[in-house]
Amino acid sequence: MPGKMPRPRAALLxxxxxxxxxxxxxNAAAPESAPVSAADAGALARAARDAAVETLPGGFAVLIPExxxxxxxxxxxxxxxxxxxxxxVYAPVGGGTGGRRLALRATVHxxxxxxxxxxxxxxxxxxxxxxxxxxxxxxAVFPRGEPVSRLYVCPTTPPGGAGAEGILFGGETRxxxxxxxxxxxxxxxxxxxxxxIHEWGHATLPAARGYSEPESxxxxxxxxxxxxxxxxxxxxSRVAKSASAGPRPDDGTGLPxxxxxxxxxxxxxxxxxxxxxxSAPGWGGVTASAMDLYIGAALAFDDTYGSALLGDALFxxxxxxxxxxxxxxxxxxxxxxxxxxxxLPAWVPLxxxxxxxxxxxxxxxxxxxxxxxxxxxxxxxxxxx
Length: 385
Known about the structure:
Layout: H1 18-21, E1 37-38, H2 41-47, E2 51-56, E3 60-65, E4 74-75, E5 82-83, E6 85-92, E7 102-110, H3 115-136, E8 149-153, H4 161-165, E9 171-174, E10 177-180, H5 189-204, H6 219-241, H7 255-276, H8 288-305, H9 307-314, H10 322-335, E11 346-347, E12 366-368, E13 375-376
C-alpha cells in the first residue's frame, strides 16, 4: 500500500555506535540524505563495540546491537508506535558484486521482545537486496529516491487500523517505510516471511495498478512470487551443488517452506500463462485472476529469458497498465544483441522480421510467437517443423 507519510523522528544513539550510526535516517539530528557507510565489515565491527556484525553472502552485513537501547525510543508518526532498538542492514557499494565498502540500505526497528524475529527479518532483507542486485544486475531503489528503507516490526495492529483499513496481522508500505504488524502474535515462519517479502515487493518493484482485488497495486504479490522463486532456485541449486554446504544464518526461510510456496503460488502461475498466453481475455480484467495472469507473465519471462531481461523490462515500463509489461518485454528483447537463449516452452514477443529458431543439444519444446502458429522444435535441433 504505497503512499506518502511524514518522515519519522528517532532518538539519539548510544556513543558506542555513534561513529557509523550517527547518520541513521531515524535520527532527527542527522542529515537524512547522507547514508551510513563503512570501509568494510571489519571497520564496522571495530566501531560498534556493543554490537555484533554478521557478514552474509555477497559481502552484505547486518549490525545487531547487543545492549543498545535509545535514551528516547524512536517514534514513528503515522500510528505512534515506539521502538527501543534498531538493526542496520548494509550492502556493498555497487550491489554486492565484489566491492567491499558498505552502505546502509535498511533499518529494522523493534522492541526487545521481538529481537530474534527482527534479526531474522534483517537477514532476509539483506538476502533480498543481494538477490535483487545479482538477478537484475542493479541495486534496489526505494520510492522517492530514498537511500535507506525503514522497517517497523510492530508487536500489534495499529490503533484503529483494523477497522479503518482492514489491517489485521499483515503489513503495509508507505513509500520507503515498511510496517509489519502483529509481531507479538504467534504464526508460522512461512507466513511471517511471506508478509515481509510482500511488503518488500511494494518498496522495490514497479508493477501494474488499477486492480479491484486483492489490492490495487500488483507490486506486493509480484514481489512475493518473484522473490520466493529466486529464494527457491537458490536453495535448490545450493543443495544440488553441495549437500555438505554449511548452514545459512537463519533468515526465516527453509527449503520445505520454499518448496511448498513454489508449488502452490509460483509454478501454477507460470503454467497458466504458458497455457493462455498474452492474448487471454483476462489481460483486460481487474480481478485477482487478471493479476495472477500478469504476474504469471513476469515469472514466465524470468524463467524463459533470465532475470536480467525481466529487470530491463520491469524497470523500463513507462506506464502502469498490465499490457505495458508485454510491450516492455518485446522492447527488452529487441535491444539485446546477438542470439537470445530461450528456455522452453516459451512465449517470444518478437516484432515483425526474420528470425532463425534452433534447438541445442537435441532440445524440444514449443515456441509461441505473436500472430504466428505455435512452432515445435525438431528433436535433431536443426530448426522447426
